[in-house]
Amino acid sequence: MRVTGEGTLEVPRSALADTVLERLTTAYAAAADPERAVAARAYMKDVAPFLGIPTPERRALSRTVVQDTPRPDETDCTAVALRCWQLPEREYHYFAVDYLRRHVGRCSSGFLPVARHLITTVSWWDTVDALAAHVVGGLVAADPRLTADMDAWIEDDDLWVARTALLHQLRYKERTDTERLFAYCLRQSGHPEFFIRKAIGWCLREYAKIDPDAVRDFLARERGRFAPLSVREALKNIGA
Question: Distances from the Cα of 174 to the Cαs of 76, 206, 229, in angstroms?
Answer without folding.
Answer: 32, 11, 25
